[in-house]
Design brief:
By secondary structure, the chain is an alpha/beta fold. It has two domains: 167 residues, Rossmann fold (3-Layer(aba) Sandwich), CATH 3.40.50; 135 residues, Bovine Mitochondrial F1-atpase, Atp Synthase Beta Chain, Chain D, domain 3 (Bovine Mitochondrial F1-ATPase, ATP Synthase Beta Chain, Chain D, domain3, Orthogonal Bundle). A five-stranded mixed sheet has the order 2-1-3-5-4, with helices on both faces. Strands 6-7 form a two-stranded antiparallel sheet. A hairpin with a 5-residue loop joins strand 4 and strand 5. The longest helix is centred in the middle third of the chain and has 25 residues.
């Protein structure tokens, strides 16, 4: 579902999907689903601007290795024509397994967990083919690479995952516990990172949102503190925590359910503008600040926790994709409730 949403809503003009070592029935499902997905850019089928490199698990080992390079080469072909292309490789772990098998048969010296010593170089060479260029015709174009890594047993210290994290600019880490809790997309905020956050903050500052960096820093700080206090509350109970710490726990819940959770099947919530995202975060943080002020005034934390935050939590799903004004109205509604506590 996550890969489908990336393919559907990304700004790329050409999508190259590489099914590396996939089971045959899974590749058939991908073909069927892409042919049914509506393309929001053109209103036609998404498959019309998608190239699929199908490599099933029963194909020869060298076909698995070649599938990844074929996908990047196709993307570079469209890039040289002046298009923005995205490569979705699922998964690079199975590609690395093919490299390991080939190295074993050729007698190459094995390194960690039997992978060839050239694995880091192969991963670096693959990801460095992404980038933005100016074509000979003068048009800007780009290749973006999104590689799915599926570490055995979820071990993120294994070689493929560890070396991939060295070379890529950002990681979305999926969490099994979030998926079991029906928190979708199950992207773990603690295990994910971006090396371009500072540059993005500067870009947003130049394009009308100077608060982007501060907003992001506040959100990551609140989520980290809420996770820490959540572990503590599991031991001693939420009721034994002081009021301001219970507000932090509430803030973490509001951010998770009101901002980070997303319904891919909702016309309003499947995507939204950057302004609406900023409005959702500002609404939650403003309500949290009002709750902290209420605690300082002597309001009991349990009274705050009993408030109905549904208007705020449903804002993402009940306002249109560009509905920042609707989010602001719900923010004022919640602020009035919190300020009315005595």
């Amino acid at each position: 579902m996550l890969l489908q949403q990336i393919a559907k809503w990304c700004a790329a003009e050409v999508i190259v999907y590489v099914g590396c070592g996939e089971r045959g029935n899974e590749m058939a499902d991908v073909l069927a689903e892409l042919s049914e997905l509506a393309d929001p850019r053109t209103g036609r089928r998404l498959a019309e601007r998608t190239v699929i490199i199908a490599n099933t698990s029963n194909m020869p080992m060298m076909a698995r290795e070649a599938s990844i390079y074929t996908g990047v080469t196709v993307a570079e072909y469209f890039r040289d024509m002046g298009y923005d292309a995205v490569v979705i490789a699922d998964s690079t772990s199975r590609w690395a397994e093919a490299l390991r098998e080939f190295a074993s048969r050729s007698g190459a010296l094995p390194a960690e967990e039997g992978y060839p010593a050239s694995l880091p170089s192969a991963l670096a060479a693959f990801y460095e083919r992404a980038g933005r260029v100016t074509t000979l015709g003068g048009r800007p174009a780009s290749v973006t690479i999104i590689g799915a890594v599926s570490p055995p047993g979820g071990d993120t210290t294994e070689p493929v995952t560890a070396h991939t994290q060295r070379f890529v600019r950002g990681v979305w880490s999926l969490d099994r516990e979030l998926a079991y809790a029906r928190h979708y997309p199950a992207v773990a905020w603690a295990g994910s990172f971006s090396r371009d956050a500072e540059g993005l903050g500067q870009w947003y500052a130049r394009h009308g949102d100077p608060e982007w960096g501060r907003r992001r820093a506040r959100v990551t700080s609140v989520l980290a503190e809420a996770d820490r206090l959540g572990d503590l509350a599991a031991l001693v109970g939420t009721g034994s925590l002081p009021g301001h710490e219970r507000v932090v726990l509430l803030a973490g819940r509001l951010l998770r359910e009101g901002v980070l959770q997303q319904n891919a099947l909702s016309a309003n919530d499947a995507h939204c503008t950057a302004a609406k995202t900023a409005a959702l975060i500002d609404a939650v943080l403003s309500v949290v600040d009002a709750c902290e002020e209420a605690v300082r005034r002597g309001v009991i934390a349990s009274e705050i926790e009993e408030l109905d935050f549904a208007p705020l939590l449903r804002a993402a799903d009940e306002t249109p994709p560009d509905g920042a004004d609707g989010v602001l109205a719900r923010q004022e509604q919640m602020l009035d409730l919190v300020r009315g506590l005595r």
